[in-house]
Amino acid sequence: MVFLRCEAVRWVGDEPQPGLVEVRFTDAHQQQWAFIDKWPIFTAGDDLAPGSHYPVEVGILCDVLNTGNTADTSGTFRISVAPWGLESPEGRIEFDVRADQLTTS
Question: DSSP 3-state assignment of 2?
Fold first, then answer.
């Protein structure tokens, strides 16, 4: 399993249960993206609560779309955050990220 490293930046609200957080990351093109969803979707979720000290490092389960899971000539990977049904507020689910933004744990 591959995860995109991100930061939970704030608690959004308690409803719907079990509560929503905002998570952000910057892609390989220096564009910042956000997701708002239920906190258990993000790894390291035990540290996410209304009173947590943000930002908190988290991960998003993702699929690597590059053929053979290798970076392209610019050193980036194309990923999809679709495994958990995530999408950015703009409706994006695919992003170009640097190799150091991905982890398997």
Answer: strand
